[in-house]
């Protein structure tokens, strides 16, 4: 049976007694690596998927779903299954919980490592953070963006702290080492930074040389410093946001945040999760709706939760990662018209500035000009 098709998945489900209650599928868009459907459960009951009316079904092949030429090991689904169980099991002990009262992750109901099929809790039809901010006709309220940012900052810090504490048992080949994820992350960012600087943006030789040094440094950290447990693809497209109307005030309040797509979870430098998230928050702020509190509140909650684990190297790592993301991805991922030369120059210049200032360890600039002021002040540097 062809599990990349609806007919094939339905045939697969009917072949397993415990899955026959699923009778209807709707293909989901948004992701790129896997074939994903929202499935309807015909007769919901507490004994079947915890009574859920819908679930999400994912199937992986040895390539990217919408780009067959790009090979991608199906083991990625095994790592996602492991990390989701780790996060849920952590929540059985309040002092070790990773999820918060606002931030959740999907529960795994079924996993088939042979056919690369998983069935997970459905986060619903809520938009991801990038689409949500992009859809607004006016800037979101300070209160809403602060609530979102604070929730995300606390959550990712809890994940990083848990990874530090349980490194001995989790950083193993059969748990969360995940070399596939490390290789892919290096390829899509650090290996591309010098190419973007030289070939795409035609930067001066001295800037290309600096970007190359920073990329080599970041890539080496990624591959050789398994610092703690990290999400690995922590960007707004993997963060579903549910809001609700406040009847008393008429305002839009945060209801729930749902963090999905954990296939690149691994042991790596913690600050790279921050760098990726903050880079995308920068472009949301610049090219969609003003939301400066989003970045600041992420870092305030992160520093408060992560506490004395934070180091100067974390600031440098996050800033280089952020700058690299702006160089490599921002100009070519739909933030503005590809022919808009001025906006392209703007975002490239900002990315380069982050890298230059981080490399020079110019903490005064970060304090005076960016949301990294929170981290600089936290470390009193």
Automatic annotation (TrEMBL):
Superkingdom of origin: Eukaryota
SUPFAM superfamilies given in the database record: Protein kinase-like (PK-like) (SSF56112)
Domain Aminoglycoside phosphotransferase: residue ranges: 103-306
Matching Pfam families: APH
Keyword Kinase attributed: yes
Record InterPro entries: Aminoglycoside_PTrfase, Kinase-like_dom_sf
GO molecular function: ATP binding; kinase activity
Keyword Nucleotide-binding: yes
Coiled coil segments of this chain: none
Keywords of this entry: ATP-binding, Kinase, Nucleotide-binding, Transferase
Family annotation (PANTHER family): METHYLTHIORIBOSE KINASE (PTHR34273)
Family membership noted in the UniProt record: Belongs to the methylthioribose kinase family.
Name assigned to this protein: Aminoglycoside phosphotransferase domain-containing protein
Native source organism of the sequence: Podila minutissima
């Amino acid at each position: 049976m062809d599990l990349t098709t609806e007919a094939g998945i339905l045939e697969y489900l009917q072949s397993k007694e415990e899955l026959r209650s699923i009778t209807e599928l709707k293909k989901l868009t948004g992701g790129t690596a896997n074939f994903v459907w929202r499935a309807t459960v015909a007769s919901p009951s507490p004994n079947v998927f915890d009574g859920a009316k819908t679930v999400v079904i994912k199937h992986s092949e040895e390539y990217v779903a919408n780009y067959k030429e790009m090979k991608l090991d199906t083991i990625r689904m095994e790592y996602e299954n492991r990390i989701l169980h780790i996060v849920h099991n952590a929540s059985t002990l309040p002092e070790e919980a990773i999820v918060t009262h606002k931030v959740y992750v999907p529960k795994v109901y079924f996993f088939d490592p042979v056919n690369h099929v998983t069935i997970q809790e459905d986060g619903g039809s809520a938009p991801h953070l990038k689409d949500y901010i992009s859809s607004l006709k006016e800037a979101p309220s300070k209160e809403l963006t602060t609530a979102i940012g604070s929730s995300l900052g606390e959550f990712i810090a809890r994940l990083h702290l848990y990874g530090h504490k349980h490194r001995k048992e989790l950083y193993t080949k059969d748990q969360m080492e995940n070399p596939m994820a490390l290789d892919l992350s290096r390829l899509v960012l650090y290996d591309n930074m010098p190419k973007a600087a030289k070939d795409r943006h035609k930067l001066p030789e001295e800037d290309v040389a600096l970007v190359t040094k920073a990329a080599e440094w970041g890539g080496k950290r990624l591959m050789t410093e398994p610092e703690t447990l990290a999400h690995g693809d922590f960007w707004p497209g993997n963060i579903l946001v549910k809001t609700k109307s406040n009847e008393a005030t008429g305002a839009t309040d945060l209801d729930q945040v749902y963090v999905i797509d954990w296939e690149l979870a691994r042991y790596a430098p913690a600050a790279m999760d921050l760098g990726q998230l903050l880079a995308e928050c920068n472009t949301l702020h610049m090219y969609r709706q003003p939301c400066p509190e989003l970045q600041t509140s992420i870092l305030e909650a992160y520093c408060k939760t992560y506490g004395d684990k934070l180091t100067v190297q974390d600031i440098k790592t996050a800033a280089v990662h952020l700058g690299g993301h702006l160089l490599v991805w921002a100009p070519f991922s739909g933030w503005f018209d590809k022919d808009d030369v001025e906006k392209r120059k703007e975002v490239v210049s900002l990315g380069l500035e982050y890298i230059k200032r981080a490399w020079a360890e110019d903490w005064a600039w970060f304090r005076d000009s960016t949301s990294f002021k929170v981290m600089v002040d936290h470390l009193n540097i």
